[in-house]
# Entry
Amino acid sequence: MRKETLENIASDLRAGYSVNLSVEDFPCFSREAAIEDPRTSPEALARISEALTAEDACVFERAARAVEEGGVAWIGFKVVDNAFAAVSNIDNDVTKSYGAIGSADGFDLVFFCNDAKEVVAARDCSARDLFQMKDVTRGPSMHNDQFEGLTWVSVPLFDPMKVWLLGASDVAVETAALARHVGFEVEVVDDDASFLNEARFPSCTRTLVSSFDDLGSMKASSSDCVCVLTRGHMHDPEGCVWATAQGVQYVGMMGCKGKNDRVRDLCMDAGMTEEQWESVKRPIGLKFGAKTPAELAISIVAELVDVRYRQRYGQEARKKHDASLW
# Structure
């Protein structure tokens, strides 16, 4: 989400102009999203846009500041499909009580929320609404259908973490699909177009190189993760050398100890330091007996989720979150 887009929306609202929020900026209302839930359609976004007033400008102003600060935050939407049910919903027997008041009103709402549970909205919210607005930081939109008459959706104000998959192997195919599903941006690199194609890697950036020796022409960010998953492990050394030289926050390589010892020797011959070699997670992924490509992808992406969690949240925030689970 661009800061300028949010500032322009806020400025237009302050000036009394009507605004049209776009599906490109708020994809939670795309046609694809509407397949899963018809309430979250482009028409719903148009309805919400039409109802926005100058009072809602504070939401977009706070969101713009969060983008500038690089914070972990979201713009969320309360989408009402049955006003009577929304204001009449009651507690269930499992979760804690949120009082006698259902949703604060039977109208759509746009709001800001961040990982510190700061909420900004134009109208007062009931305790039950606040519970669901704060849960946006867990999904987004965790428990979005817990109560009748409304649903909750959101878009992040921060960029997704990027994962490089070096090699278009079968494990990479499964890893790409799962990583995309949980919100990572994925780029796959290989030297064979017959393996690196849209059918195997839909919705991913695909980079075809003439040789893995050409990796040096590419640049990764320090916040990226790299998974070395080359076909038959043929180009694991080149992948490890490139990834560690980029200074990314995580490098993982698949393979057994015997193979990895040989990779180490080749990496050392290529100028890699012992410290760089020790920074490579091997074998890649969490250990729970994964063997098939799909199982290995689960272990790899689970580890990537943990890396992302530790990057986004400080030790105190993680401690508080972990304590709430027990």
Observations:
- The longest helix spans residues 293-312.
- The first strand starts at residue 73 and ends at 80.
